[in-house]
Amino acid sequence: MLAFLGFLTIVVLLALIMTKKASPTVALIGVPIITALIAGSGLKIGEFMTSGIQSIAPTGVMFIFAILFFGILSDAGTFDPIISKIINTVGTDPVKIVVGTAILAMIVHLDGSGAVTFLITIPAMLPLYDAIGMKRTTLATVTALGAGTMNILPWGGPTIRAASTLGVSPIELFSPMLIPFGVGIIFVLFAAFWLGKKEQVRLGSIENVREIINTTQMDEEKARLARPKLFAVNIILIIAAIATMIMVKELPPHVVFMVGFCLAILINYPSVKDQGERINAHAKEALMMASVLFAAGSFTGIMQGSGMIKAMADVAVTLIPQSIGRLLPVLTGVLAMPLSLLFDPDSFYFGILPVLTKTAGSFGVDSIMIGRAAILGQMTTGFPVSPLTAATFLLTGLTGIDLGEHQKKTIPLAFSGTIIMLVVSILIGKISI
Fold first, then answer.
1. Vertex 320 angle, CA 314 and 326, to 5°
2. Are 18 and 408 in contact (CB under 8 A)?
3. Is-above-0.90 flag for pTM?
4. Count of domains in the chain?
């Protein structure tokens, strides 16, 4: 019963969001409450929701102050010279811009943090996309593909979890997958090239693009808020914030952005009146997406606390027919990315993976094959589209797009990337059939 309600919750949630029948906030709060009540959780739902919200609170605070931090710096015109430089370097070619976005996302994700990747890549590239007239969904998709593929790295969360479950080192798990991983990176660049070509066709002539840029640059309100003399100071502030997040582990990202916001607004807009105006200008966006993040925390708390996640894991394993036991690695690889929509990384790698490996062992299949297949998609290519990870809402929030729209555009490409890496893994013998 619990497992059925769990699957029903996910299906209804995704259906409501992707068909735009309900906002993500409403769906994330309302759907699991109803199914948990049916499951008999009663008033314990409040406890589950509170637990989930507490787990997501640091991310929510980080998101609010990250929006304010980058919003203030954007108002001050900090990114305008960078945009001009990029345009002068790559011209107005959408193909080069989208491929450059993919490369930037993959480089930034070397630290293994999806939140940091999105917080750096999106604010840096969004003004350029807007100035040229490119779709924000393209920015979100290519950033998600880059970050998702790079999440396979041995210091990425999924690989570390899989290695812990299997009792091997992350390097031992990852090293045989180096070639498939490389092919995955090539696929991301190819997908970026393809998306860039589509944007190129849609935008039309270069003259039209330049007209859009010129119109944007002539905005009087933007000129009033610009602080060109503080460009160097603001760039140093951004670099300091990023370096602190990456290098100083004692200071969590939400603290860094809270301090960074204070410095940014004091430096650029010392007047109390101006500070109030700038905060109000970005408050709506920050509040809307923070509400989605806390709703996501509530959703995860109910799913875990009610036992639905665990029940789903148990049922998923029992559904595997004995006749395809030796094909478990391939089956795991095929389902890995879609399973990111159903299971958070802890539930999958610490709940489902051990049972899968034990089942595979009874068929003479090396358990490490299951682990290799899993990291090709489960919360790697799949994490930036999953409603179970706060980073997904961070990505959609920063780009200002709808979750369902992002999922419909990104899931097919993310799944394709996983399948291509899986096929290469089979061909070179790293995953057996």
1. 125
2. yes
3. no
4. 1
